[in-house]
Design a protein that fits this description.
Blueprint: E1 2-7, H1 14-26, E2 31-36, H2 42-53, E3 62-66, E4 85-89, E5 95-99, E6 114-118, H3 128-131, H4 133-141, E7 148-151, E8 165-168, E9 174-179, E10 190-195, E11 198-204, E12 216-226, E13 232-240, H5 245-248, E14 258-260
Parallel strand pairs: 1-2, 1-3, 3-5, 11-12
Antiparallel strand pairs: 4-5, 4-6, 6-7, 8-9, 9-13, 10-11, 10-14, 12-13
Helix pairs in contact: 1-4
């Protein structure tokens, strides 16, 4: 069973090893794949969930995520309580289990076949994704009837934020939540792209490598997924050929707004 573990522990952090160990305890056949995202970035978590969950995946694939800023209540908390554990089943058959925080479920809210609360406490440990949630996730994965609670109204979940940076890959490419629209794109057009206080000229392209070495491209990237009605969404990527767009724009945070002119 392929198990993607999406979390903000930090690349190579001990926490990933501890969570993997606990998941393997409850699901011995699990094949864990750690997927790190920046601290508290539910936008990046949600984007990764959709990218992995809405594209073709092996039967039984599970996405286990934990990015829990505990921002649902700013008052003092008892028992390290935080956002509740939720479950979604996607059209691909992929099952998603994780805390319902921020934008974590936003990118799949309109396509998931089922949304329910997990029958798991939301408190009891500072490290809930190791001490509390793996056992609940295993119960859901194994199909135990008592593992799930009430349904969740997807309409109450936040929609994905528009025109922001959703993910920065290892090459420094900026994956955005600007949808690629063939009717609006004019390949070869020069535009100004602004992120925070940094603004640079880019070439609009229908393919990232359709610009010369050293030039900035504003083009459909490698991220996107099929939609139930038969179409597919592809997201615009800001790509510096031969360089690092994230560095060029001053290393902006996930969620930073992207504007063009």
């Amino acid at each position: 069973m392929l198990v993607h573990i999406i979390a903000d522990y930090g690349t190579g952090d001990l926490a990933f090893a501890e969570v993997v160990q606990r998941i393997k305890l409850h699901l011995p056949d699990a094949e864990p794949v750690p997927v790190p995202v920046p601290p508290f970035s539910t936008v990046a978590a949600g984007f990764c969930i959709a990218q992995l969950g809405l594209n073709a995946a092996p039967p039984g694939t599970l996405i286990y995520h934990n990015v829990a800023p505990r921002q649902d209540d700013h008052e003092a908390r008892l028992g390290n309580a935080g956002e509740r554990l939720a479950y979604a089943r996607l059209p691909t058959g992929v099952r998603v289990i994780g805390v319902n925080s921020g934008y974590a479920f936003s990118f799949i809210k309109d396509v998931a076949e089922k949304f329910r609360w997990a029958a798991s406490p939301a408190e009891g440990s500072q490290f809930r994704s190791r001490d509390v949630f793996p056992q609940a996730a295993a119960a859901i994965a194994l199909g135990l009837p008592s593992a799930l609670g009430d349904e969740i109204d997807a309409r109450a979940l936040a929609p994905p934020p528009s025109s922001v940076i959703a993910y920065v890959d290892g090459y420094g490419n900026l994956k955005t939540t600007i949808a690629y629209d063939t009717k609006k794109v004019r390949p070869g057009k020069r535009i100004r792209v602004r992120v925070n206080d940094h603004e640079h000229e880019a070439t609009v392209s229908d393919g990232a490598f359709a610009v010369r070495h050293g030039e900035l491209a504003f083009a459909p990237g490698s991220s996107g997924w099929p939609m139930p009605h038969g179409d597919a969404v592809r997201w615009i990527e800001i790509f510096l050929r031969g360089g690092n767009a994230w560095d060029l724009f001053g290393r902006p945070a996930i969620g930073s707004f992207v504007s063009t002119a």
